[in-house]
């Protein structure tokens, strides 16, 4: 049984969805026990309320662009009922997108690696125009 | 390695989003091992299908009010395609909101406390007009 | 402390929401330690980007049909901004629904069984017209 935790900083990215599987895998690979872990769970948690983590297709970048376009029309800026606008018109929609998508994903570990499906990758949802660097806490446990 | 579980009852609240971080933290603090836990995960699970848990901004209450207004227009009552109306017009939208937001959140534990970001709090999404008290199962594990 | 993991195959189902609690419970029951586990967590992870797992009402099937109708109007096919259409008009909406609902659910274990609320069941969201069989990785840990 092992517990490990590491904080990683995702570099600033433009508004939209971004594949960050490589950064997550690298952070996990640096932990001492991953390779010999037979079964476990990796828990990824973003410490922000205007960005999100989700799992989706790791291949065609059009999927990420289409997701951004759908979310922008489903959660529009400058809707007449929005009161929380002091930090800009992108702020409250960012909070809504963050809760719709969620602040964490957890992925099973099997035989020393993330048991993602063939087409699955981890996305950062950057919902602010200028969100800056984002902090993710990676917690690994298993045996 | 420790496992603890406690069931908490959130008092009845009106329809909308409510900050319940304090009640969660109090329940965790009552568990014997939290303070000496270096790393772990707290898992919060709501045993209902018309209420939800999510993480969002812990400061401006307008965020919670704006969230309620967005969800009310995105998942309207009395839509013509809704069949499940026996328990009232607020019931089926409540089920939809519950799945959009989710029935659980999990938060890393670091150095004896929830590793929430500065602006993060735990929200109860109360999606019924008269939902009553809500039960949350808090499971804590770590070392 | 125990860790167990099993991969299950959900049989092909038509597009829509389907109650799969029985298949999940059967997979868990086949694991050696469930019955004597006092406290733990069951983590269910679907290895696909066009299907999802969520928790909702286990009784009236109209809830599942209403959910399908809401998602179909909220995430329409053939929207003018959708570019990722090579695999059919149902593909990109399926990716969006998968992220809105999520690729995993985790449920506390209490006294040897899933601590679901009275009305809660596990749903498969099948978002493709012909999604085929779906793989779910069930990870059980507790003591």
Walk me through this protein's architecture.
3 copies of one chain form a homotrimer. A 5-stranded antiparallel beta sheet of chain A has the order 1-8-3-5-6, covered by helices on one side. The first copy, chain A, has 143 residues and is α+β, with helices and mostly antiparallel strands. The longest helix of chain A has 14 residues, at 61-74. Chain A has helices spanning 21-29, 61-74, 91-101; strands spanning 2-10, 16-19, 39-46, 51-57, 104-110, 113-114, 120-126, 134-142. At the A-B interface, β1, β3, α3 and β8 of A face β3, β4, α2 and β5 of B.
Notable traits:
homotrimer; 3 helices
List the helices and strands and how they pair.
3 copies of one chain form a homotrimer.
Chain A (H helix, E strand, L loop, with lengths): L1 E9 L5 E4 L1 H9 L9 E8 L4 E7 L3 H14 L16 H11 L2 E7 L2 E2 L5 E7 L7 E9 L1
Antiparallel strand pairs in A: 1-8, 2-7, 3-5, 3-8, 4-7, 5-6
């Amino acid at each position: 049984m092992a517990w490990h935790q590491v904080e990683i900083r995702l570099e600033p990215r433009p508004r939209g969805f971004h594949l960050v599987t490589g950064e997550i895998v690298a952070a996990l690979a640096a932990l001492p026990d991953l390779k010999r872990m037979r079964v476990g769970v990796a828990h990824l948690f973003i410490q922000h309320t205007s960005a999100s983590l989700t799992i989706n297709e790791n291949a065609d970048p059009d999927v990420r662009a289409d997701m951004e376009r759908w979310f922008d029309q489903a959660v529009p800026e400058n809707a007449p009922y929005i009161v929380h606008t002091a930090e800009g018109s992108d702020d409250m929609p960012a909070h809504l997108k963050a809760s719709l998508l969620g602040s964490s994903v957890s992925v099973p570990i099997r035989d020393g690696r993330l048991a993602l499906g063939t087409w699955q990758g981890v996305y950062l949802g950057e919902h602010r125009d200028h969100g800056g660097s984002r902090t993710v806490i990676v917690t690994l446990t298993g045996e």
